[in-house]
Amino acid sequence: MKTTISMEMILLLAGLLFVLGIAGVIIRKNIIFMLLSIEVMLNASGLAFVAAGSHWGQPDGQVMFVFILAMAAAEVSVGLALILQIYHQHKSLDIDNLKEMKG
Amino acid sequence: MDIIFYITAFVTLVSTLMVITRHNPVHALLYLVISLLSLSVIFFLLGAPFAAMLEIIIYAGAIMVLFIFVIMLLNLGKETEIQEKEWLRPKVWIGPAILSVILFAELFYLISSPTTSYLIEQTVDAKTVAISLFRPYLIGVELAAMLLMAGVVGAAHIGQHKKTTLHRFLQEEETR
What we know:
The complex is a heterodimer.
Chain A: H1 7-27, H2 31-56, H3 60-90
Helix pairs in contact in A: 1-2, 2-3
Chain B: H1 2-19, H2 25-45, H3 49-74, H4 78-87, H5 90-112, H6 126-134, H7 138-159, H8 168-175
């Protein structure tokens, strides 16, 4: 009963999730979806941390996960405030319409 | 026991794929909640119950509610009523429902199985994490507190409504 999943499979899952998050950031044109994809990427890195921590039996992985969680909360609050402000000023969330800086 | 992990990983990948391909933000949020729940099941399987609890409470509970608030704030008006009708069709919620039923079946199986069946021998419980968090990583906790404080202040500053103030030359041009 006590079989351990190989570390490679968990890291593969974390890598796939990260790739899905990057793909979401690249292919979506809506700012809300880009923020969601960033959340997915943060989750993937948190999974990698927790997997490594449990592999060695040390609490450091979960400590790092807690820090990632705090960082995600701060990032989401600021990001959503920015989204609200952008919507009030431009009446649109399409990043192609927000080319004020001509980037 | 491995099969539980693989099913959960499959659920996670499918729901994340649905997150980045949906057109409606609320549908994407629904799938993202499923993704977070299945990820917390994986954390449980890895012997990290504290991280799994935090994943559910903070991510699926607090951060997703923030997203839903903002989405609800953004599209007000008549379109919302039409959308509201469309949101209640079974086509919308049948996908997340199936995925969460899979997760629930796993939960039922894991609870009803007599042996404590963690995949990894030692579980790192909340007490160990707390001791590590408040002794060697204390400076990190304080930095995280400062980051959260900066986030709250920044969000309150950015989010307040301001009139669009133009430069005085531009204002003169407008009044002319």
